[in-house]
Every structure is written in structure tokens, then in C-alpha cells.
Amino acid sequence: MGVKDQAKADAVERTRQAHLRQDRALDLALAVGLTPLQFVTVKHAVQSLTHHADWQMQRTPHGLTVDCTYLLAKREGLPVSTQKMRTLTLDIFGVGTQPRPSDWMHPIYAEVLSNVMPLEEEE
Prior knowledge:
The chain is mainly α. It has helices spanning 3-21, 25-32, 36-50, 61-75, 82-93, 107-116.
């Protein structure tokens, strides 16, 4: 196994270990400024995507949770960046995970997310 492959395998194992002990996804949501109720929306988005008929396992459950947390934080107008998410995930999970929001621009996934995380209409 090459050095790059070993580093990736080590990162995957650290992520697996972090999730075995306790689901720290709520910690991530709170760290970016989401409320516990908004975290429920993140979990619903993850479930909606992974159970969608067209889901092709583009991201690990961990990566998908990071993506959905990031997307909801952005929709809520919270000051979050991909670099901040990477730093927070490194602190919380021991593995820095950068969100990939462009993965969810596909019309099918964008529709699923807009149904779960609708934008608030301005009055």
C-alpha cells in the first residue's frame, strides 16, 4: 500500500473510531451555530438522501453529515466556510473533513435537499 493510500486508510479508521464511541455530529452542528432542532433537519437530510432511489453512495455517512451540516448552516446565514468545517471536524472527530457542497447541485439531490431544508421566504 502506498503512502497516500495508507494515509487515506488511517483517516477512514480514525473517522470510524470517532463514530463508534459516540455520535459527535450534534457537537459539529452546535459548533457551527445550529440549534438542536436544526440538527434534526441535518439528520433528516442525510436520511432522505441515503434512502433516495437514485442514491449512489457518493459520500460516506460521515462526509454526507458534514456536507448537510455545512449546507444548512449556509442556508441559515451562519458564518461558516469549508476551511472552518475542516478545522472543526479535525477537532471534533480527529479527522479533517472538507464539505463538498457542489456534489449536491445535481437536480435530484438539490430537490431532495430543498424539500428537507427549504429556504425561508422573506416577508
